[in-house]
Amino acid sequence: MKIAYILNTYPQPSQSFIRREIRALEAQGHEVLRFAMRSADVPLVDVQDRAEADKTEYVLAEGKAALAGAVGRAVRRDAALVREALKGALAMGAVSEVGRQRHLIYLAEAAYVAERCAAEDVDHAHAHFGTNAAAVAMLAHLLGGPKYSFTVHGPEEFDAPRALSLGRKIAHSTFTVAISQFGRSQLCRWAEPGDWDKIHVVHCGIEPAKFTDPAPLPKGPRRLVAIGRLVEQKGQLALIRAMAQTTAPVHLTLIGDGEMHGQIEQLIASLKLKDRVTLTGWVYEARIKAELAAAHALVMPSFAEGLPMVIMEAMAAARPVIATYIAGTPELVQEGKTGWLVPAGDTSALAEAMDALAETSLEKLAKMGKAGRERVLERHDVAREAEKLAGLMR
């Protein structure tokens, strides 16, 4: 097939799962065109991201004249289709936080994308996230463009399902993808019951070849690593408070950067945890892998998630996981078998889980890591998941 991926900002360092999915589809013989509304606003360090940027066509970079020209040609081809698409754009804009004017821009972007898809003889369009990329895919379809699908990740989409018109986008799609069964259940809340059968689970995938030889668990005092943006939904403030409640001499390395960096740093100092918590800031992928190899477990204290890629990668690296009992996480992390699950925001339960890990023998931790590795490789092989996605497209 010839497939068009419709994306908002691409590539982005935090969304390597999209790149892996595209590459897996290409490895299976499909041709994938990349249409992004805009380029990343941060430097692309990863050579693979830079290669993706070179392959991507940026819609807004074409300029207003190109988008207006696409709209004009669409009107001349079929004014009735344009009227229907305009109604759809205005209806979404009426309930959206960004308003109708922004959705008229999405309509112009959609006209350009639909025209390009027609010129390239695209068989199917797929968007990631239920936000503006899905709106552009839907509007392009209403303008006579290819049938479309989109993947909803969460948690942001589930925070504003009405404002994002998820039900409308699902209704017009050929199928819609959730990345977990929990995600599917949330989409069923906003879709008409008659559309439930078109909502499917396709997991985000990892490349097993990159996790062929996991490092053995280190000896000595237990070391934990937490990886993620320093933002409210990731729960790092709760993690620092839990560290102050632990009785075992565990050490935490906190990897990532974000708007809450200063607050987290201040909390570490106020709780006198500087000797037990290392705050690294943003680091390269090689450092992340090294810190994971030096750790006995990953800890993920999130308040809201979809299904975190970092959990999949930690399990593939044969590391147990301490995580919160939210969203799709319990579908992957199994209490007592591959790690520990605690209620989100419960610092006492999180501290108890970290103490329990510290008291667990290396042999038991290695067994848990092995079970987690087997589980994630079975459920999240990117080649198998991409094949599942391609089957739905066919």
Automatic annotation (TrEMBL):
Q: In what residue span(s) does the Glycosyltransferase subfamily 4-like N-terminal domain sit?
A: 18-209
Organism placement in taxonomy: Bacteria, Pseudomonadati, Pseudomonadota, Alphaproteobacteria, Rhodobacterales
Transferase recorded as keyword: yes
Q: Which domain of life is it from?
A: Bacteria
Entry annotated with the keyword Glycosyltransferase: yes
| InterPro entries documented for this protein | Glyco_trans_4-like_N, Glycosyltransferase_grp1
Which Pfam family, just one, is annotated for this protein?
A: Glyco_transf_4
Which GO molecular-function terms appear in the entry?
glycosyltransferase activity
Give the Enzyme Commission number.
2.4.-.-
Instruction: List UniProt keywords, sorted A-Z.
Output: Glycosyltransferase, Transferase
Please give the name of this protein. Answer: Glycosyltransferase family 4 protein
